[in-house]
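Quick one: structure for this chain?
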Amino acid sequence: MAEIKVRRAEIGDAWLAAGFAAQVYSASAEQMAEEFAVGLRRCDRAIFIAECDRDAAGFAEFAIRNDYVNGCDFSPTAFLEGIFVDEKYRKLGVARALVNEGEKWAKSQNCAELASDRELDNELSEKFHLGCGFEETERTVSYRKLLVPQGVRRADEGFWEKLDRLVAEHEIVIDRPKGSAHPRYPSLIYPLDYGYLEGTSSMDGDGIDVWLGSLGDKRLDAIVVTIDLFKKDSEIKLLLGCTAEEKQTILAMLNERMMSAILIERA
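Got it. Here's what it folds into:
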């Protein structure tokens, strides 16, 4: 009887998980490794590695979805994004063990449901889901109309992906907490936590500036580009987990005195 163990993947497992993921996702192992290097640091995602007699046998990726998930009644919902088991370790209970660990993680995230999907003609996937206790909720057919040539990426995708990587790989240092005063202008009070990415460099020679909002997920979905006539420089500032109102508050603060700023939101 094979000994099956499942463990939570760590940063060093990015390439191992990517090798499995490339078997089920329409992306190369290199692309998946880069994505996992960021995803493994996120609290709303979990990747598990299955080992069978100490050999890597498969992986599963789970995520928390806050938008509506077909067939589900609660939000947020845990979602099985992908699962793969090496052919020589199939029918041993590896997939079931991976799903069990995903269920435990989902419950720890206060999720009442675990969802998944499959292609309509994938009978193997249907057997897997039913065998793991999933119930079918509905069947749909999806359509798309391609508006750009096949294979063309949106021009800014690489830009945001590289910023994600900077945030994932460098510690955020908050040196000016919410409510503190600007060191040069005491009447200027910081409306949110403000700091920088340690080990990075911006136009002023210090670390890349970061604003932390109240959402708590530290998702990078906007930047502010500033021009400062007093310092005679231009910089970008990363906005992490900021609400729409907080973004406008930051923008207003940075459009004073000798400084002007524009907000660029992630599409």
